[in-house]
Amino acid sequence: MKRGLSVVIGFITGIVNGLLGVGGTILVPAMIYFLDTDRRHSHGTALLIIFPTSLVSTFVYYQNNNVDINLAWKLAIGGIVGSYIGAKALRKLKMTWVKRIFAIVMIAAGIRMVMG
Q1: Where do the domains of the chain lie?
Q2: Is 104 helix (H, G, I), strand (E, B) or coil?
Q3: pTM
Q4: If phi over 0 gives left and psi between -120 and 50 gives alpha, with beta otherwise, what is residue 94?
């Protein structure tokens, strides 16, 4: 059952990632609540899954001339450093804080999208 559900969750994540660029946003909660994966493994696994799906989406966006390469490089510099710090912090933070931070980010993103 979980194998089939995993494939369905991956499929939905791919569609959302290609359409909106936020596949990991739904992937982490789906792994936690439907696949009984702990939060730390969910975050790490989501990153591994989002990497190839983002490459595919990026290629299609690039083909459609919807990628700003100069801006992407600038953002990537900070993103790489921030990702390293965030991944290191995940090991040290209590899960209650990780839950709270994740919830705040999701709520803020939702408000931003609605207000838009």
Answers
A1: 1-67, 68-115
A2: helix
A3: 0.69
A4: beta
